[in-house]
Design a protein that fits this description.
The protein is globular, with a radius of gyration of 18 Å. Strands 1-2-4-3-5-6-7-8 form an eight-stranded mixed sheet, sandwiched between helices. The longest helix is centred in the middle third of the chain and has 14 residues. The model has no long low-confidence stretch (mean pLDDT 97). Helices cover 39% and strands 17% of the residues. The two termini are 23 Å apart. It is an alpha/beta fold and 305 residues long.
Length: 305
C-alpha cells in the first residue's frame, strides 16, 4: 500500500458506511489528499503491482463499488475515488468541465506514485472524467472499462441526449434544481434511482441509499452535481478535439441494451477498436448485476482465475 500520509479529513462522518464493516477494515482504508486546494477522498486497499482505479457517477460515491472491491484485489492496488466536488471530497472547483476535473484525478494518482499502467473503470459521469484522463494523459493508463456513459462529440450530441431523460435538463437548472431538492434529498434521489432503472423494483439497496443521502445532503453536493451537467456543452467541444487523435489502448463498454449500439458507436469515434457488451439491466448495473460487471472487469483486464 502507498505510504503517502493521509490528511485529517475535512468531511465529517466520511466512514459512516464502513465503521462496522469488518471485511472492509481488513483490506481497505479511507484516505485524504489535497490536490490544488481540493481535498480528495478515496478508499485504497491491496498492495499488488497493478493499480486499478474506480470512478463513480452522479448520484453515487466510491461506495457504489463496495460490493466488488475485495474481488478486485488479487494482484492489484484498488483505489475507489470520490469525484471532485462529490462524496466526501471537499473544496472549491474553478470549473466543472471534465478536463479540469480529470486533472485532479491525474495529479492524485501522480501523488500516489501511479504514473503509468493504471487500469481505469468508470460509471456514468465518471466516464466523462475517465475519457478526459485517457485522452490527455495516455501514458498513465493501460486500459479503460466504461459503464453506461454516452461520450458526446462525435456521432452523439448532448442535444440528442437531452431528449432521452428529464434529468439532463433538470439538473442543469441552477439554482432551481438545488432549491427544489434542498431538504428533500432522499425523496429526490429515490425518485432518480427508479427513473434511471424503470421496471426495477429496488435499483439501490436501502443501505446504499442511506449513504448516498448522507453525502448528497452535504453543502455543495447538489450544486456541484448541477455544474457537472452544465458543463456538457464544453465537454462535447473538448471531446471532439480529443477524437482527432484516436485512442489505441484497450477500451471496453458495458451499457443498457436499448442504448448499447448508439453508445458504443459514439465511443468508437474516439477508440475505433473498442469492444462492448449489452446488459439486460437498468442504469445502476453495479447494484443490479454486480457479478456480471465483475466478470467483465476481470475478463477485460486479464485477471487470473
Amino acid at each position: 500500500m502507498n505510504t503517502l500520509v493521509s490528511e485529517t479529513p475535512l468531511s465529517e462522518n466520511h466512514d459512516a458506511a464502513t465503521r462496522d464493516d469488518r471485511e472492509f477494515a481488513r483490506h481497505f482504508e479511507h484516505r485524504f489528499t489535497t490536490v490544488d486546494g481540493v481535498q480528495m477522498h478515496y478508499v485504497v486497499g491491496g498492495d499488488g503491482p497493478q493499480p486499478i482505479v474506480l470512478l463513480h457517477g452522479f448520484g453515487e460515491t466510491w461506495f457504489g463499488w463496495r460490493g466488488i472491491l475485495e474481488d478486485l484485489l488479487p494482484g492489484h492496488t484498488v483505489i475507489a475515488i470520490d469525484l471532485p466536488g462529490l462524496g466526501d471530497s471537499t473544496g472549491e472547483l474553478p470549473s466543472h468541465d471534465k478536463v479540469t476535473l480529470a486533472g485532479y484525478i491525474h495529479r492524485l494518482l501522480d501523488e500516489l506514485g501511479h504514473t503509468e499502467g493504471v487500469r481505469l473503470v468508470s460509471h456514468d459521469a465518471g466516464g466523462g472524467i475517465a475519457f478526459a484522463l485517457v485522452t490527455r494523459w495516455r501514458q498513465q493508463f493501460s486500459g479503460l472499462l466504461m459503464l453506461d456513459f454516452p461520450v458526446t462529440g462525435g456521432s452523439l450530441t448532448y442535444e440528442q441526449l437531452r431528449a432521452l431523460s428529464y434529468h439532463f435538463s433538470f439538473h442543469e437548472q441552477e439554482p432551481l434544481f438545488e432549491q427544489l431538492v434542498a431538504g428533500r434529498e432522499r425523496l429526490y434521489l429515490e425518485y432518480f434511482y427508479r427513473a434511471m432503472s424503470p421496471g426495477v423494483d429496488e435499483p439501490m439497496p436501502p443501505h446504499v441509499v442511506e449513504e448516498y443521502v448522507r453525502v448528497y445532503s452535504r453543502p455543495g453536493a447538489f450544486h456541484n452535481g448541477s455544474r457537472y451537467y452544465q458543463a456538457w456543452p464544453q465537454d462535447e467541444l473538448d471531446n471532439r478535439a480529443a477524437m482527432a487523435d484516436p485512442i489505441t489502448m484497450p477500451v471496453h463498454f458495458l451499457g443498457q441494451a436499448p442504448l448499447f449500439e448508439a453508445f458504443l458507436t459514439a465511443i468508437r469515434g474516439a477508440a475505433p477498436q473498442a469492444t462492448g457488451a449489452p446488459l439486460e439491466t437498468g442504469h445502476w448495473m453495479l447494484h443490479e448485476a454486480p457479478e456480471r460487471v465483475l466478470r467483465e472487469i476481470k475478463s477485460f483486464f486479464g485477471y487470473d482465475g
